[in-house]
Amino acid sequence: MADGGSSDGTVELAAARGCAVVRSPGGRGRQLRAGVAASHGDWLLVLHADTRLSAGALAEAQAALGQPGLRAAAWPLAIDGAEAWFRWVEWGAAVRWRLFGLAYGDQGLLVTRSLYDAAGGYPDTRILEDAALIRRIARLAPVQHFRRPILADPRRWTREGRVRATVRNWVLLGLFVAGVNPERLARWYLPEAGPQ
């Protein structure tokens, strides 16, 4: 687990459950880079702390590892909540993936270390590090779409407001695809951000 300075007990909980904890400067890109740098093996499985990989999704990934040509994959998004709005967000994530080939970090990433390195790894940005990396990976190799979804915690949408958070995310994505620097966008997305 890579931590960028949280103070909510996450580090202690992770350590108590047997996780190796890597400390890094704040910012998701930096944290993810640090976590990958501390890992070993030919494959990387990257998950955000607020996502869960179901047994079915993990089994699908394990079966796919034997497929020739597989070098990168991500999961569909499912939000852990019964509200109809979350189904719209999931639909939007699927459309985003189809239209732009972009999977966010809450969809997980399974990638060979060699492809990750060839793509330059996660950029040191506070937001959209996942979209930036997946774009670079997709230029080098196809990104497989798994069928079983990964489960994301709904609290960000609940805390920030479902409509506001969703519209903001789509606007940020549009600006990113148009070429706006993610660090500039981070000032809007995280105006008072401390460690992530």
State the helical fraction.
Answer: 40-55%
Instruction: Specify the overall morphology.
Output: globular
Q: Describe the largest sheet.
A: 4 strands, mixed
Name the poorly predicted regions: 191-196
| Portion in strands | 5-15%
**What structural class results from the helix and strand content?**
alpha/beta
Total domains, how many? 1
Strands side by side in the biggest sheet:
3-7-5-8
H/E element sequence: EHEHEEHEEHEHHEEHHH
Instruction: Give the integer mean of the pLDDT values.
Output: 88
- What's the alpha carbon Rg, rounded to whole Å? 16 Å
Q: Termini distance? A: 13 Å
Count the helices. How many?
9
Please state the oligomeric state of the protein chains shown. Answer: single chain
Number of strand elements: 9
Walk me through what this model shows.
It is a single chain. The chain has one domain (41-189). Helices cover 47% and strands 13% of the residues. The chain contains 9 helices and 9 strands. The protein has helices at residues 10-16, 28-37, 55-64, 84-100, 113-118, 129-140, 155-160, 162-177, 182-189; strands at 2-3, 22-23, 43-46, 51-52, 72-74, 77-79, 109-112, 144-145, 150-152.
Ordered list of secondary-structure elements with their pairings:
Layout: E1 2-3, H1 10-16, E2 22-23, H2 28-37, E3 43-46, E4 51-52, H3 55-64, E5 72-74, E6 77-79, H4 84-100, E7 109-112, H5 113-118, H6 129-140, E8 144-145, E9 150-152, H7 155-160, H8 162-177, H9 182-189
Parallel strand pairs: 1-2, 5-8, 6-9
Antiparallel strand pairs: 3-7, 4-9, 5-7
